[in-house]
Fold this protein.
Amino acid sequence: MKKNRFSIVGSAFAAAITYLTPLSAAPAEFAIRDGDRVVLLGDSITEQRLYTTVIEAYTLSRFPQWKLTFRNIGWGGDTAQGGLDRAPRDMQPLKPTFVTIDFGMNDHGYRAYDENIFKNYIAKQTGLVSLLKSNSSRVALVTPQPIEDKRPDPDQDVRNQALRKMSDGLRDIATRESVLFVDQFDPYMAVMLKARQADANALIGGGDAVHPGPVGHTIMAWAILKSLGATAAVSSAELNGATGKVVAATGCEIADAKSAEGVVSFTRKDKALPLPVNPQAEAVTKLIPLLEELSRYELKVTGLTAPKYQLLIDDKPAATFTAEELAQGCNLTLTAGPITEQARQLWSLVVEKNNLFFHRWREVQLYGPPDWAKTPDFEAAREKELARLDEQIAQLETRINAARLPQPHAFVLKPAAAEQK
């Protein structure tokens, strides 16, 4: 079984995450609130529905009682100008209360810094902020992530230097307009530079130079969520394995705890689920302290005497740990058996819902028929199909809301067989 213990964030990672000035520091509370209608605006990187799904899954799982909706309106090839132009059609009808804006990759023209391009970018981003504020929407200005080509010095790429200056311009807008500034550029760059120390041509994000794959998007989401005020604690339980007594429980309720003949058992009911990690991106935990900083689902058991213990949850094998690991404490985010599986089911439902909304929006709502087909009958059929899809989306969101509610689970720790690993 895979081991998963508490890990210590190294100095390189610490440097990667201390990237915000006091002005743009993470809010005292999580920026997304109960009742929010969250809209994620951006270009093709947002349209990929990857980093945005991590943000959504984190919020849904961490705050299972909150009433929330998320809508992704990323558009391939778009710029801040395009986002401003299509806001009345795509964004305002959604009546967002909180909007993340992630433009810049296409705006900078994939070239060295150009002052005129920069001024236009700042003007259009300022226009977006003003529009949203006039509609009482809270705003987070998100920098683009850096371009990742095979080179040992991505920070010297003139395109990345241009993106960094445009990101600094976003910081200035956030200062003037009193909105949240989110810099994913610096932490992503720090992770890339660290990877280059081991391999000068390492590619960490997957995908292509501009469009990261699941791993790269998870790095993006990690940086964004930290800036939004996301925290690590899911829940923690500490027991004395010798006596079966509960030492401490935070974010969970522990019942029926006991120790008999070397076997420790108890029932655990959490207030939240661990972070749903994209199954295609679990390797990201080797690059960033994702679990340590965004999903600490903890179990600590002291006083154990056998060398190794098997953890069963609801009578199903979940993981195997040494007594020393359990005494130090284990992060079970990826090894909590049916609890991890519930988080993965939540992830799958959110992906399904987001794909369905994309289909509804781009392929039905915005479908432009040829002139000869533009008839009242066609529009009536469109409205009928939109209504059908809206009902499907609503049904999926009902299932999502049910899937994010934690359930009680029976935990058992028993000495592992000598040959078990």
Notes: The radius of gyration is 23 Å. The mean pLDDT is 93. Residues 11-227 form a domain with the Rossmann fold fold (CATH 3.40.50.1110).
